[in-house]
Amino acid sequence: MEKKRFLSGVPVRELAYAMAFALFLASCSRQPVYPEPERTATEVTIGMGTLKTDIPQFFTYHSGNRSISFFVLKTGDKVMSFYDACAKCYPQKLGYRFDGGALVCKACNVRYSLSEIEKGLGSCFPVRVPGSGSGQAQDSRYVIAIEDLEKGSHLF
After folding, report:
1. Do residue 5 and residue 64 come from a single domain?
2. Spacing of C-alpha 103 from chain mean position
3. Is 91 in the same domain as 146?
4. pLDDT at residue 112 above 90?
5. 19, 65: one domain
6. How far, in Å, CA of 22 to CA of 37, rounded?
7. Distant-in-sequence, close-in-space partners of 1: CB < 8 Å, separation ≥ 6
8. Residue 30 — pLDDT band, cuts 50, 70, 90?
């Protein structure tokens, strides 16, 4: 007959399962952390040459103990930026994923084609972050003021 090992009255196997489950839940409830963009004292910048048309590029800006994630999207001759947070589902801190040419809210699975993302239809949509730049020159920069990024810190 096999003896079970106990740790303070709890079988080791059950303790291991409980710990694995807790780690799984913790990993599923956190928003991903992406590469940090280049930054100065007042702004973050993204090189236009690094942006691919119709593929969002995700970043995380660290401010104190907050991590503010956002993505930059180049569509045609426009470049736009949005928080990686849904206007409705942001309390769940899950953000978006890019899937089959669409952005999908990880919390409620609402899909947005990239051509409609700017419209923000319905209650689940990415929140816009003001930014500026043009997508023509390879060495040009897309710029977001840190002050503007931090205005959305409550989403994270």
Report:
1. no
2. 11
3. yes
4. no
5. no
6. 32
7. none
8. low
**What is the total count of domains within the chain?**
2
Q: Are 126 and 112 in contact (CB under 8 A)?
A: yes
> In the numeric block, which tokens belong to residue 73?
């999207």
| 96 token code pair | 């978006």
Distance CA 54, CA 142 (A): 16
> Among candidates 57, 27, 36, which has minimal Cα distance to 135?
57
Domain hosting 95: range is 38-155
Question: What is the pLDDT confidence band of residue 11, given thresholds at 50, 70 and 90?
Answer: low
Q: pTM for this structure?
A: 0.76
Residue 115, token pair as written in the block: 């051509």
Instruction: Write out pLDDT tens, residues 70-111.
Output: 999 998 888 999 999 988 889 999 999 999 889 999 998 888
Residues 57 and 104 in one domain: yes
Q: What is the CATH number of the domain that holds 132?
A: 2.102.10
Q: Check whether residue 123 and residue 57 sit in a common domain.
A: yes
DSSP symbol at 137:
S
